[in-house]
Write a structure and sequence with these properties.
Radius of gyration: 22 Å
Strand content: 15-25%
């Protein structure tokens, strides 16, 4: 069992007498994590199994009957439901049982899509539940081969709860490998020869199964065209008109499909930073696929080092955006933005955390110069009170002071 950053926090929260909802994209390790945390005698329902799902859809009362058959446990008997969004009536049953006795059961519901729950008006148990999310592996869980540099300062520190490194981390990878295959736990631990096939299966078989199962898309062919275009455009500012024209679907449909990817935790929306007196700033968000390996496969590209080497800069930028966004989600405070003016001046990312702003440029170079930070300095000048320091994240072997307010930081020191 490899260590997950969120495990200790989730373990502590599971001891609280609430219903626990864990959401995240498929294959991020939700079931594996929960099975390592809940007792062996827990009552488990796997609604990803078509037979079990059909049984509960046909007989909604069976779930409550099974729960009531459990012996009373002073600490609370754990009940684990995987892919709970497949049977929305489960949430009503959980509420009824929880309201009747808040200590007899400890419900843990796991899901990979919030779309159907929202469309059906499913009961997400307000006031009764704690919401959790699990994402692909972070740099803390899946370390770099280069190791840490003690004096390096991260723009967004992400230490383990005990202040130490993972005892059982996932395999160490270099930058090119992680840009090629992404960070899904099952891909990271798979044999190299199997990774491309597994990613292709994820991008098409799993997504198709999930979408078809929940009847989320009527025109599958149109969605496949959209998915490929959205993957190709990952990391760029959203252009609904361009995707609409290329895919042959309306702009409202394009917007609904992007929302679908977010609801399935497949996409990340990075809004534009708008708290600026400048009038020529764009207000359109960026959209990034949640995992680079899935992105390559969905774009119709072979997940290989050659794919990355053909244009590494934008892929490197997406990797950093995913890493920063996941850290902010786990930390539970702060937001990630980007900033671009109409004349093309861009700050790749702006971290808002702890009352301060940190602008970041992402460069593929091994030899950064102050010119690489030319868009950071105006931002720091404009936001003197909130923004004290900026970073150029790149492939340099050690931190470099480019300016009193600018540090070039190796990616593995993030």
């Amino acid at each position: 069992m490899f260590d997950r950053w969120y495990a200790s926090e989730m373990q502590a929260k599971l001891n609280r007498p609430y219903v626990h909802l864990l959401f995240g994209a498929r294959q991020t390790g939700k079931s594996t994590l929960l099975n390592s945390l809940i007792p062996d005698d827990s009552l488990c329902f796997n609604l990803a199994d078509p037979q079990e799902r059909s049984r509960h859809l046909g007989n909604p009362g069976e779930f409550a009957q099974a729960c009531r058959s459990l012996p009373t446990n002073k600490k609370g008997q754990f009940v684990f439901v995987d892919e709970a969004q497949s049977v929305p009536s489960i949430f009503d049953a959980v509420q009824a049982l929880y309201d009747a006795d808040k200590t007899r059961w400890r419900f843990v519901l796991c899901g990979s899509s919030a779309r159907k729950l929202r469309l059906t008006g499913a009961n997400l148990l307000p006031g009764r539940s704690l919401l959790h999310h699990l994402y692909p592996l972070t740099l803390a869980e899946h370390p770099a081969k280069e190791g840490k540099i003690v004096h390096a300062t991260s723009p967004l520190p992400f230490p383990w709860s005990d202040g130490k490194q993972a005892k059982h981390p996932f395999p160490e990878w270099d930058l090119l490998t992680r840009l090629t295959y992404g960070a899904l736990p099952g891909i990271v631990t798979a044999d190299k020869l199997d990774r491309p096939g597994l990613l292709k299966a994820y991008a098409f078989v799993h997504l198709e199964e999930e979408i078809r199962r929940e009847a989320l898309v009527k025109d599958w062919g149109a969605f496949v065209r959209f998915l490929q275009l959205a993957a190709v455009e990952s990391g760029q500012i959203l252009n609904y008109a361009n995707i609409s024209q290329e895919a042959g679907i309306s702009q409202p449909t394009v917007k609904s499909y992007y929302q679908l990817l977010e609801d399935m935790f497949i996409g990340i929306r990075v809004p534009a930073y708008s708290k600026s007196p400048r009038k020529n700033l764009l207000s359109t968000p960026k959209f990034i696929f949640f995992d680079l390996g899935v992105r390559h496969a969905a774009a119709g590209l072979m997940p290989s080092s050659d794919t990355v080497k053909a244009n590494p800069g934008p892929i490197f930028e997406q990797w950093l955006g995913i890493e920063l966004w996941q850290r902010l989600q786990y930390l539970g405070e702060g937001k990630l933005y980007h900033q671009r003016s109409r004349d093309g001046a861009e700050v790749d990312f702006v971290i808002e955390h702890g009352g301060s702003l940190t602008p970041i440029e992402v460069k593929w170079t091994e030899h950064p110069t102050l010119n690489d930070a030319r868009h950071l300095l105006p931002f720091l000048q404009e936001k003197k009170k909130e923004a004290k320091h900026g970073y150029v994240i790149c492939r340099c072997p050690r931190p470099l002071q480019l300016h009193d307010q600018i540090t070039a930081l190796p990616w593995f020191c993030l």
